[in-house]
Amino acid sequence: MLVSYKWLKELVDVDVATAELAEKMSTTGIEVEGVEKPAEGLSKIVVGHVLSCEVVPETHLHLCQIDTGEEEARQIVCGAPNIKEGIKVIVALPGARIADNYKIKKGKIRGIESLGMICSLQELGLSDAIIPKEFADGIYILPDAAVPGDSVFPYLDLDDEIIELSITPNRADALSMRGVAHEVAAIYGKPVHFPKKTVVESEPAAADQLEVAIESDKVFTYQARIVENVSVAPSPQWLQNLLMNAGIRPINNVVDVTNYVLLYYGQPMHAFDLDKFEDRKIIVRNARADEKLVTLDGEERDLIGEDLVITVADKPVALAGVMGGQSTEIDSQSQNVVLEGAVFDGQSIRKTSNRLNLRSESSSRFEKGINYATVTEALDFAAAMLQELANGTVLAGHLQVGDLPTDPIEVSTSLDYVNVRLGTQLTYADIETIFAKLDFAVTGDSQYFTVSVPRRRWDIAIQADLVEEIARIYGYDKLPTTLPEASGTIGELTSAQKLRRKVRTIAEGAGLSEIITYALTTPEKAVEFTLAPSNITELMWPMSVERSALRQNIVSGLLDTVAYNVARKNTDLAIYEIGKVFEQAGNPKEDLPNEVNTFAFALTGLVKDKDFQTPATPIDFFYAKGIVEAFFDKLNLRVEFSALKSLASMHPGRTASIILNGETIGFIGQVHPETAKTYDIPEAYVAEINLAAVEANLQPTPPVTEITKFPAVSRDVALLVDQEVSHKAILEAIQSANVKRLTAVKLFDVYAGSHIQTGKKSMAYSLTFQNPNDNLTDEEVAKYMKKVIKALTQEVGAEVR
After folding, report:
1. Residue 388 is labelled as binding a ligand
2. DSSP-derived pairing of the beta strands 639-643 and 617-618
3. What are the pLDDT digits (tens) for 479-518?
4. Are 427 and 397 in the same domain?
5. 432-452 burial: b if 16+ Cβ within 10 Å, else e
6. ∠ CA 161-163-165 to the nearest 5 degrees?
7. pTM
8. Which end of the chain is more exposed for a tag (fewer CB within 10 A), N or C?
9. Is 15 annotated as a binding residue?
10. Measured between alpha carbons, how far is 432 from 789 in angstroms, rounded to an integer?
11. 147 and 20 housed in the same domain
12. Are 673 and 535 within one domain?
């Protein structure tokens, strides 16, 4: 909705800056999209009087002498086809700025000096869609009353300010200038001033000339007036300006009056040429499936049974509520006019306009709602305007079928209801003041009251609507604010959410990239990498077999992603996912599965590319194991690894289960070569960890230990042990010595070759000792080493080399 601020100020006593008005309206419920000033950026554009106009030989140009209010006439060359002597035109003087910030300069055209430019409306920035057709291809001719040398902006109302409103469906009352005026009056506590017009009727009666009827339940009322002997001509300048500022093209005085009433009352209207009627009876009915109608835009429309049509002699002459028909169009020869005012079913109008892609100012208003109380008043107003502007004669009486409820709607509520919901302490006097601003009548007392809501506000029907009206006029900024009660739930992350965020940080710190895969897969892949498969939960109506079962592992989805990337030459991958797997211990068709938070990753390709100094470093088991160890180290948990051969899809010699406090919570290892071949991927390493089990074993963050200032002491020892002795067994033996100053044990070499006896291997360790409170002596370290070696000899049969 485009609102002329000049027009608005005529209807309500308001004279504030448009920026302030826009802010006020936006905060009370009608959003202002913006404010446009048509004259902004234009300068030095004045009225000119064409004193003479001569054709430039062998060209389409004219050499004109223009009076622009200066001592001497100004010579301007113009190529417009409608330029002629004696008319008033728009002149841009040298140095002027026109549309698109174009600057006018003195110049020569075909060797003839031109001191300015005679402008069209397009050159002032107006859209082609709103310019009168007679001036579409030429310059604009100003009224004779225009004074040469004056600025053209007041004559064209370009000095107006246009307020663009974003009207929501519940506030369709603001799709009219009267509705906007009521809103502004309520905001500022001002009265409205609506001009009245009186129709002077003449004999004979309209009913003697025409009859109207309704044959559809989608038509609530249909009213008409007949105006005879009209003189069709261009509208006065003020009316053309008003329509163009509202985004509507002026046509002629009859059509422009209907558009003016549309803007003023929000009541769509249409004018028919009575002399083009083949019968003297208008029937409004549903269209028939085989009917057609040529609308005013020249397009032939195929109609269906849901469309509403205005018919004469059983032929459609207009598409009700959307657009008139070409056969009864008002033209320059029209003399007798039928003015139509009606209320149609909004849903029916919306379906028709959407189906035909034919949106109009009329259809949008019928769709959102019409003020029942002013249908007849708007019709009379339009008839009175035709008397003034077209010298028409209005026949006596209305033609009307169907009645509308026009009485105000009574809505009751209590003061307590209002104050409880707004958190206010309003009194009954405050309520009366607010509704007086809205021009709503109120009756009642300090406890209960009833509001008479005019029909122009059809969005108000229940108590909550009254509360909303009170709140927005009282001022949302005045409503008291309260802090949430202390008993409310404190917003914080759950332990699972905290763990998920920490896992994501650890994984990305290790160089992994997060992905998300489908929770649905094939029944085979659902249990492929699962340590303890359960019943498969399948969809009854899957989209495809590939997405038919809930997964019980994440690894299969990761490998699908690896295969997708490898097929596209992206061979170095390090990806992870945090998601849910679904364990089903009961009946898959009756019981919901148990959802388990799980972390998994997949690695393939190179850790480091080959360069001129070093060879390429491929990903291996120990690289993947290092990520898992770092993962648990960051979580302050100690895990153990144990050889795992039960997973058929994993390499039996390069797979280990992950054990936390005696519970197997996942696995790590290489994908079996045969499985990798099935997925069409190269050598890959994967891991999967039960995050629910990890969360259950998390310990509070240990306190910070101060870094000691005393140095550590390291000792190396090489052990000869049986081939079957594991690194884990040696660590346990070292720990059993209970040397409290031992702070770190690191395996740095393993050897099994020809220089040692068969069945044996050499394992070399570096042991670090440190006393946080004092320096260690060689004697103390020697005593600690002795205890460690003794434990190793007794526990694993180790021999110091």
Report:
1. no
2. unpaired
3. 988 776 666 666 788 899 999 999 999 999 999 999 999 9
4. no
5. bebbebbebebebeeeebebe
6. 175
7. 0.64
8. C
9. no
10. 97
11. no
12. yes
